[in-house]
Structure formats: C-alpha cells, structure tokens
Amino acid sequence: MYFVARLVGKTVAFLSPLLRRGGGTSAPGVALLGLHPKAFSKLSESLEKGSVLISATNGKTTTTRFLSEILNDAGVACVSNTSGANLKSGVTTALLTKERHHEMGVLEVDEAALPEIVKENRPRMLILMNLFRDQLDRFGELESIAKRWREMILELEPDTQLLVNADDPILATIGLQRPGSIFFGLGDASGYSREELQHASDSANCPQCSAPLSYGHLTLSHMGDWKCENCDLTRPQLDFEVSEIQLDGLTRSEFVIQSKSGRHEISSSMPGLHNVYNALAAFSAASEIGIDHDGIASSISQTVAAFGRTEKVEINDREIHILLAKNPAGANANIDTLLLHSGPIHLCVLLNDRIADGRDVSWIWDVDYERVLNRVETLHVGGERSFDLALRFLYGGFEKDKIEVADSVPNLLDSLLSSTPKHSKIFILPSYTAMLDLRDELVRRNATHAFWKDGK
Amino acid sequence: MTEVRICHLYPNHMNIYGDRGNISVLTKRLQWRGYSSSVTNVGIGDKFSPDDFDLCYLGGGQDKDQNLIAFDLAEKAPAIRSAADDGVSFLWVCGGIQLAGKRYVDASGSELLGVGILDLETIAGTERLIGDIAIRSSVDGREFTVVGYENHIGQTYLGSDSRPLGEVLHGYGNNSFDQVEGAVQQRVIGTYLHGPLLPKNPDLADLILTWALEHRISESVSLEKLDDNFAVNAHKRAVSRAGLKR
Q1: Nearest by CB: B130 against A137, A141, A142
Q2: Of the listed B13, B56, B94, B152, which one is catalytic?
Q3: Is B194 a catalytic residue?
C-alpha cells in the first residue's frame, strides 16, 4: 500500500508544477498523507543520516538554505524544502523528491506544526532559533507556542541533539531543561546593540520568575545578553559565539565565530544582524555534524538569499530589494537593515490578509516604521490592505499627499519605476502572499525566476 | 489652547494588537484641529487620580499580562468609577471590555472582579470567536458602522444598565448568541474590536474625542470634519472582508 501511495504522491509531484501556482510544493504531500498517514515517518526513516529540523518565527528559510549549501558542498547530499513549504504536507513533499544519493534531510518546520513533525521524524538535530509575536489569529499568544515547545523537548528522543539560540530568553530556558543542549548567540554586539526594547517586543520578562530582564546588549526584539536580577537566571554559556560584527550596508556582513575548535572568520553576502543569527545557527549545526570549518565558512560566503528574503532584482536600471516582512520582529529587522543603506530610500510596503499572511493585520501598528520615515524619498503602499498601510503611515507622521496607494501589482511597479530616478534602490517590504504576487509580476516581466526554481 | 488629558492604562502590559495606533489617532485628530493633548502612561503601582484626565484608554493583552494587571486595577477601581461618574470618556478594548465589567469567570470557574464601570459579565467559553467583524452603531444620536477584528474566548453578557455599542452585521460580537457587540454606559465604551479600532473608524474616534473635549471645557463641542479618505477606503475594504464567508 505504501508503495502505491508513494507513487501517487510522486505523480502529483510531477504534475503540480505543470499546474503552475504553488509550484507543487505541498500538493504531493497532501495526496500521499491522505493515502498513507504514516508516510512522513517512513520517508524520514529512509534518510540514512537522519534529518535536521529548523524552526523559528523568523529566519527558517535562510538558515535552511545556509545549512543545506554547507552540507551539499561538503559532500553530504541533502534533501530540503527550500521553497519554504513548511507544514507537514510541505516537508513530506520535500522528502518525496529524495533521490537515491540523498543521505540527510534539512527541513524548515512551521512553529505550530513542529511538535507533531518532531515526533514522527525523530530528527538527529533540532534547531530552535527565535519566537516572536506573529499571526495571533493562527498561533494564538506567543506563550502558547512556547508551552507546546517546552512539552515537546521533554519528550524528545535521547539521541536528538538540541541547538538553541541562547539570546532568546524563552528558548534558552527551554534548552536548559535538557542536559547537553548546544547554545549559540552573540558574545559581543558592539555597534549594533539598541538602547531600549522595541515596542513590539514580547517576553522581556524572566521566563522563570516574571521579573523584567536586564540586558548587557540588546539585539533584535527581546534577544540579547539577558539576565534576571531577581532570580539570577542568566543567558547560558555560549558554545558558538559571534563577535567583531561589521555590517557593510546591504552588500556584506563580516564577523567572527568562536567555538571550542577556535576562531573562524566569516564573510557573508547576506546583510543585517538577523542574517548573522541565521549564519551562526547554520555554522553551529554544521560544526556539530562534523563538517570542516574552512569548508563551512566558504559555503556561507557563497550562499545567496532565498527568494523574497533580501532578494535583489534588477529592472529598468533600478535595483529592487525585496525584504519579506510578515511580523513586527521581521519588519523591524528589515528596517534596521535598510537603515544600513546610506543613500535615498524609496520605500514600498505591501500587505495582504490571506491565511498565509495572517487575517489580522493589526501588527503593522507594532512596527517601528517611524525610524526610517525621515529618510524616505518616495513611499508606495499596496496589497489588499493598502489603505490600512496608508493610515499607518498617515498617523505615523508621513505627509498625506506623498503616500502613493497602488490598486494593483502592475500599477504599483509602473508607478515605482516612473517615480524613481535611474539607478535608484527601491526597498519593498511585502507580507508573504504579497511577496508571491509581486514576484509573479516580476517573473512576468522577465526580471527574475519563478520561486520553485529557486536554488536549482 | 485646550489640552485634552489622555490616560493610557498599562501600556507596557496591554498592547498586543497595535494598541498604540489608537492613541496616535486620538492625539493626531486633536492636533489636526488645533487642540493639544497629553498622554500619561499609568502602569502597575502608579496612582490614578480621577480629576487628572478627560479620556482613559485600556487595550488588550496576553492572558498572563491581563492577570498581572488585574490585581493592580482592583486598587484603582474606586478612582476609575468616580472618573466614569464624572463624565470622563473611556475606551476599553479587547481585554479592556472584560476588565470594565463586573466580573470575569475563567475556564476553571475562578472569578476575577472587574472595575464595574460597565454593567456586564464575561464567562470563558469553549470556542474562540475570531475573525473580521462589522457592526452598526447608534450612540448619542450618531449612526455609523464600526469595523475591526475580534479574537476572544470570553463570552460577554450585558446587564440592564449598559447598552450594546452596536448590532452585529457580520462576525460574532459579545457572545455566540445575542448578535450585539460592545457596551456603552455613561461615556464609557467597551468593545472587542481591534485592528486597531480607531484608524478605520473615524466616526467613533470623533465621538470619543467630542466627549473628552466636553469634559475638559464643560460645554458642548462640535468637531470640524477632516479629510478621511484613507479611512473611508480602509473601512470599505474591511466591511467587504467581513461580508465574505468565513
């Protein structure tokens, strides 16, 4: 029966891309799981060297990309869900595409789907990167996801290795539950630490006693070198530690990773502090798997952004930078990144309210757009909730007459191109489906490739 | 220049649904009309004096934060009731409407006392009422629709002293049965609608500001119209969104 089910899944996998939308990244898994509910476990078992699962609110796709590049370069052939389809149907679909020579799975997993997927996949390694406020309508409060993760860790198989971002107080505390957890974080964030918590920050209270945390340095949202003055709970000792960070605009970042094996200089073409965390997670994982450190550093330097994640697209002599922004923490990290750019800023924000975006769009009011407004030369808003964005910027203090509201993606692009001089950099911050719509139009205009061909 | 004194209660704990947007709308709409405003953050352990404010705002929070502030709020309750009786304008959203009521009974049956400025009580339900919502409102002779997003497990029932803020056109409202949303009593408004509430609902924002100004200068106020074309369009989109099948 399993073989028949698998054959059906493979057939759907072959047909889906021909049917266009979605690129066939989930449908085959849906078909297979419908016929054979244990298919995902079975497919997982077929990976000789097991799987690495990566979960987070932000950074899953990029970290997965870093790690699979590193492993593939090192001769460990990996199967991966690089298209970002990260529910059970999506990871099942990814495993269906496994070829004979694939030895390991590197899979990004949705936060809410993680406990079930961990149970069935029995990963060799689990990487927990961050939890931020996101899609309250779907996930509920951050605390409810954290609780489910806490329970998941208590039932983790003994041979699963746990890697945790120590800078996230909730995750660090989850990691401390389990002996032998590996912790990564920023040892020194000189020059990139902020003075106070961002408005959107959650969990700046001690996970153990609820007292407000104090920070040696504060990086993104509630992450940093944290300590509770009340109960003395402190960020765990770092096994992999970043220092000497140099963020060079939108083009590069350089930093050093220290571990027990020594000091490793890293240079990456992915901008911004959030990508330092992503590279650090991938480095730590690859190092624990036993990959040679020079090889890791070289693979990181050659990895380019996944579709829509700080992706650069050139069109009509202008550079469009697409920075996916689907929750306040992600949008704030993008704003930090675009502030690294020294020239004029042409800003465009796109917001849809479909299930994958979150139906509740109130989160845009928790983003600190104000920080960038005095640098903005032109401002466009679009997507299904364009007028919610227009209101956000109006009440944020931007001049009403300078807010351009676009009623369709083609009109938006036309207006962006006609209102900016040649060689401009245009920064687009779209929600998830708005990013897909935008890329569809860019593909139609032959400016980029379709997302399911990404990384191939 | 007349200054409207706004109290923002527990901004550090109760701010989950872009609540600061509501405060921006209040202060900016005053500023655009030549009034000034002050916003005072009143948190846990801070004193609330009924004579210090014309408008009092409370937003929504995570359950653990709502429990954290509930004890402090109980201490402020007499002063808050006295402000409401004195005609101060109140907008309490999401968790706020529950705390404004007489009591909240959680899933385990334990009871949390509210401030009692709205005659209502809330009992934890079994299903979350979640989605886009539109209501038709009639308050102080003004008629308007209000749109937003609701996400609550509490089932709220009104007593005889408070009226609903509106009839539900689409969505759930206070509970799974009554087809009404929110509550109004004196100049206190409680509602589950966020999104945040005020940017897309300028009529409601101006009603609350009119009340606050009248409290400040003790005479009747008629606010001039503003150019609300972004709000009108966003409102339209939200109405059509709420009208779609879930």
Answers
A1: A137
A2: B94
A3: yes
Same domain? For A287 and A328 the reply is: no
- A394 near B CB under 8 A: yes
* Total domains present in chain B: 1
CB pair distance less than 8 Å for B196 and A365: yes
Say if residues B95 and B14 touch (Cβ distance below 8 Å).
yes
A292 and A398 part of one domain: no
Q: What is the pLDDT of residues B19-42, one digit of tens each?
A: 999 999 999 999 999 999 999 999
Tell me: do A159 and A258 sit in the same domain: yes
* B94 is a catalytic site residue: yes
The nearest CA of chain A is from the CA of B51 a distance in Å of 29
Nearest to A395 among B132, B199, B233 (CB): B199
* Whole-number pLDDT of residue A17: 55
In chain A, the residue whose alpha carbon lies closest to the alpha carbon of B27 is: A395
pLDDT in tens, A315-360: 999 999 999 998 999 999 999 988 989 889 999 999 999 988 988 9
Output the pLDDT for position A14: 63
Cα–Cα distance for residue pair A411/B203, rounded to 1 Å: 31
Both tokens of residue A424? 């401009």
Residue A322 lies inside a defined structural domain of this protein = yes
Q: Give the DSSP H/E element, type plus range, for residue A218.
A: strand A214-218
Q: What is the token pair recorded at B45?
A: 């352990």
CA B28 to chain A, closest CA, distance in angstroms equals 7
Range of the domain at B171: 3-243
State whether A222 and A319 are in the same domain.
no
With an 8 Å Cβ cutoff, are B199 and A396 in contact? no
Cβ(A430)–Cβ(A357) below 8 Å: no
Alpha carbons within 13 angstroms on the beta-carbon side of residue A195 total: 0
The total domain count for chain A is: 2
Q: At B178, which CATH number? A: 3.40.50.880
Q: Compute how many other C-beta atoms are within 10 angstroms of the C-beta atom of residue A158.
A: 6
DSSP A306: P
CA neighbor of B73 nearest in space, from B55, B50, B105, B100: B100
Contacts of B171 (CB under 8 A, 6+ apart): B129, B131, B132, B133, B134, B135, B150, B181, B242
All residues of chain B having their beta carbon less than 8 Å from the beta carbon of residue A143 are 62-64
Interface of B with A (CB under 8 A): 15-21, 24-25, 28, 62-64, 68, 130-132, 149, 151, 194-196, 199-200, 227, 230-231, 233-234, 237, 241
